[in-house]
Amino acid sequence: MAAKIISGNEVSQQLKDEMKEEVAQMKAKGMAPCLAVILVGEDPASKVYVSNKKKACEYIGIRSLETVLPKDATTEQLLDVIDGYNKDKSVHGILCQLPLPKHIPETKILRAILPEKDVDCFHPFNVGLISIGEVRFLPCTPAGVIELIKRGGFETGGKDVAILGRSNIVGRPLSNMLDQRNMNATVIMCHTKTKNLKEKCLSADIIIAAIGVPEFLKGDMVKEGVVVIDVGINRVDAPGTERGWKLVGDVEYDAVKERAAAITPVPGGVGPMTIAMLMKNTLTAAYEQYGK
Prior knowledge:
With 292 residues, this protein is α/β, with parallel strands linked by helices. It folds into two domains: 30-115, Rossmann fold; 140-270, NAD(P)-binding Rossmann-like Domain (Rossmann fold), CATH 3.40.50. Strand 9 (234-237) and strand 10 (245-248) form a beta hairpin. It has ten helices and eleven strands.
């Protein structure tokens, strides 16, 4: 049986349509959610991400603000912008697009955003809430992964989940989220020092690949009926194609899909979900700040 393709494009559109209706109801009650995005420099990929976030806000009905600083902006200038948005009661969510120029300390910037406006969920306070099961926001990419599993029709309760990668952006928060009582998965987080990695993958009911290595997860590393979520997005050479390169995930897609019950594509899988979950966090922030 062919693997079910879990489309992030389709699921994210469903979510955006649901939020569009929700925002209309919020506005009818006098609530106007607003997201402020800060971009430092002219990184092409970052500009695309910011543009996509702006389009999502426009579609759903969320007011969006944008501040663009030059790449040589100082840490103090960026902190001043954040402080302004922190104090602005009409702004409910603040996002500082990463990566930042090397001369600006990322940790200091992310911690300057008020926890209640930290819709990327990078502030240590919000990360800590997840670890004890008192969630305010969920990190956008991990939340998108879980939404894809759920809306794909798959349960996590009692399942063995292997997470490939232990980054603070994806792997670690996913581990915290999946073993909470509302998810009830048994999680193993794999990394460069993990022994018998292939065996651990073969025993998993769900595999989430987030290591940034092109096509790392091979067909002989998964069992029949596994659910595979590919978080990776890597540019690799593709001689003879129009662009000379193509995007691939951390999963050897063609081989793994022959054994999997379900799999996400790259592109069009987890990527679109990240923005959808950012929108969801913005609504959550607005509700909290309006006292609803």
